[in-house]
Each structure stands twice: as structure tokens, then as C-alpha cells.
Amino acid sequence: QVQLVESGGGLVQPGGSLRLSCVASGFTLDYYNIGWFRQAPGKEREGVSCISYSDASTYYADSVKGRFTISRDNAKNTVYLQMSSLQPEDTAVYYCYAPRLGSWGQGTQVTVSS
After folding, report:
1. Long-range contacts from 52-58, C-beta under 8 angstroms, 24+ separation
2. pLDDT, tens digit, for every residue of 47-74?
3. What is the sign of the dihedral through the CA atoms of 44, 60, 19 and 55?
4. Under DSSP, is residue 90 helix (H, G, I), strand (E, B) or coil?
5. How far apart, in whole angstroms, are the C-alpha atoms of residue 70 and residue 36?
6. In this structure, which long-range contacts are made by residues 49-53, counting pairs with CB atoms below 8 Å and at least 24 apart in sequence?
7. CA distance 67 to 15
8. Which is nearest to 20 in space by CA: 91, 64, 70, 87?
């Protein structure tokens, strides 16, 4: 069974950092592009970042560029999203996604508040 499980969310103060993890099971991440998306209350889900399987090239939304870093550890079948300089507008449920499989994780809540 194909599954993606996110973890690492939580409550953090403005300016703080979190690292999200997306662990895959039922398939090998080596051959799939993986994306991170987020959805804030009352807003549409938006793309945050993605990483390719072929050359680990990356993409970032303008709103997170320079603050977030996506990476992958194929040996652990895991993709990470390192988030720094977090701001209240980063508050959302964060999801990982495998486009070719059409699979979403259940999401992890990130709340940035003082």
C-alpha cells in the first residue's frame, strides 16, 4: 500500500525553525518527484517546494525562497523540509505529495505564533 506520512509540525515562535519529514512506504522514493504543499485556514492548498528524483533539482515558491530547504534521503525513503525564519503567515497544514502516484500524506500542522 502506497503511503506518505508527514511529521515534525508543531507550535513555534516567529523566527523559529522546524524540520518536517515525509516518510514513504509501499514504494521507493528514488524514482519519484516529491512536493510539499500547505493549506492555511480558508485558503487554497498551495505548492511550497519540490525535489526531483533524477538530479535532486529543487523548486521553491517565492514566499519561502531563502528560508525553506527541501532535501531527500533515499536510503531512509524520506523527504525533508527544513523551515527557518518562520512567520505567522507560514501557519498551515503541510502535506507531501507524490504526483506520479497521486498520493497525499495526512498532513502535519505548523503554527507560528508568539
Report:
1. 53/29
2. 999 999 888 899 999 999 999 999 999 8
3. positive
4. helix
5. 9
6. 49/81, 51/79, 53/29
7. 10
8. 70
Banded model confidence at residue 111, pLDDT cuts 50, 70, 90? very high
Give how far the C-alpha of residue 109 lies from the chain's centroid of Cα atoms, to the nearest Å. 11
Angle at 82 between CA 76 and CA 83, to 5 degrees: 155
**Which of 80, 70, 75 lies closest to 28 in space, CA to CA?**
75
Average pLDDT of the chain, as a whole number: 95
Dihedrals phi, psi of 74, to nearest 5 degrees = -65, -30
Strand partners, 70: 81
Q: Using an 8 Å Cβ cutoff, are 73 and 54 in contact?
A: no
**Neighbour count for residue 17 (Cβ, 10 Å):** 11
The Cα–Cα gap between 76 and 102 comes to 21
Extract the C-alpha cell encoding 104.
Answer: 497525499
What DSSP string describes 46-58? EEEEEE-SSS--E
